[in-house]
Every structure is written in structure tokens, then in C-alpha cells.
Amino acid sequence: MNMTAKIILGVAVIYLLLLAALYLFQGQILFLPEKTHYRTPASMGLSAEDVWIDTEDGIKLHGWLFESEGADHVVILSHGNAGNISGRIEIAEMFLELGVSVLMYDYRGYGKSEGRPSERGLYRDISAVIKFAVEEKGYRSDQIILYGRSLGGAVSAYGAKTHSVGGLVTDSAFTDVPAMAKMYYPIVPEFMVRYRFSAIDFIREIEGIPVMVLHSRDDEIVPFSHGENLFEAANEPKEFIELRGGHNSVFLSSYNRIKQGWADYLNHLKK
């Protein structure tokens, strides 16, 4: 075997090994859970109920329910792929100031929730949380607003597609995992991407509820075009709000814009 053939063979072997590693460890790349809560609602001066939610496959999920007296709606927050609910308490604080109750929960494998994360598992999780809000906490389905950030956008869109709810909001969400994989790992063929989380497919099928899409033009992780494409795919009534700030800092960078957008959205629901 001549030198050129050896080089080609070596490159091919390295490529195949890299593909194999990316295929086998996709879950570890996508899901980045933290088990420890580094703060609590009480440490932030807020009152919340610890709730435990049973999924259909026997997993116990943990969450915090922040109730606002006389609230017309409850927001169910599905967070991103990293951390846990202890990093999202400021979001609950904003909603309480708007007079809205908030139910935030950790996916399986995150925070105090049992199990290990998977795509099917996260869909089961949002279904269980919606069921809990209706059957255990007495909310009407039209009072429930699903709010998904980043990965949570696909989870919330799935929930809105498969359950009767009052509204859907996505924030910094991607269209689907294959589109993200193509951008970050262009050497990986699409058929090797094991996860879909296709928010854009789910959102196309949602009808009859108001959809709001939030996305920052400065998002360095999920490109602005993903938010534009989700908005284009959504059915009326819908609204797009352009934000400023990076993917993980947008809530602070665009706090006033986000809060006003939510206030307008909630007023629209009341009407």
C-alpha cells in the first residue's frame, strides 16, 4: 500500500471513529442536567409549593408551583437543556409581578426529578405536568400557557400539539435538532442524528391558540433564523418579538421587552 492510500485510509478511520463517538454520545451532548439546587424560592424571598408529579411510565418529577392569588392563567415553564429549575427563579418572579401563577418543573434526570432524560421521556414529562395542573390543581385547560425556552420550545410545542391548552410561547428555541447538528457538526450525516425535538413540525399542527415567538438577533447558540422559521410555520394568531442579548443572558438583557411582551400577550388572552 502506497503512502497516499495509507493517508486516505487513516483519515477514513478517524472519520468513522469520530462519527461513532458522536452517535454514541449524542445524549451526553444534548442533555446537560444539574442535580443540585444552588438556590431555592425561599432564598430569593418567594413562596412556592414543592410539587411531585407522576408520569405515565412511573417517573416522579419535581417542580415548584408559584401561585398568584386571583390569577387568570398559569404558565408552565419547560427550561433549556442545561441546569435545573433553580436557575430560573427570576422568570417566576417576573410572572408573579404580572399576576400570573407559574409551574416550573425539572425534566427526568434534572434536579430532584427521577430517571434519565430522553426525547420520548421529555414528551411524557410535559404531558404529565399538564395533566397534573388540570387534575390535581384544578386549572382549566384554557388557563394553561406553555412556555418553552431553547430545548423547552420543542417540549412545549409538543405539549400544545397533543393537549388542549390556552397558549404557547417559545423563547430562543430551535426548529429541530438535525438543523442544529448540521450547523455544529457538518460532518455528521442527518440520518445519524438520533434526536429530533422538531418544534417546527409540532408548531405547524397547532391551531386555535395564540402563539408568541421570542428570539434574540444576538443569539450565538440558536441562530435568529430559527425563531423566524418557527414564527413563519405557526398559524394565526401569532406574534414575533425580537430581543437583544446572548442565548443565556437574554432574559436579563431584554427583561423589559420580555415583560412587556408577556403583559400584552396576557391582555390579549383576557380579551
Walk me through what this model shows:
- The chain has 271 residues and is of the alpha/beta class.
- It has helices spanning 3-24, 26-30, 89-97, 119-135, 151-162, 177-184, 199-204, 224-233, 250-253, 255-270, and strands at 32-33, 49-54, 60-66, 74-78, 82-83, 101-105, 144-149, 167-171, 211-216, 238-243.
- The chain folds into 2 domains: 1-30; 33-270, 3-Layer(aba) Sandwich (Rossmann fold).
- The chain is 40% helix and 18% strand.
- The strands form 2 sheets. An 8-stranded mixed sheet has the order 2-3-6-4-7-8-9-10, with helices on both faces. The protein has a two-stranded parallel ribbon with strand order 1-5.
- The longest helix has 22 residues, at 3-24.
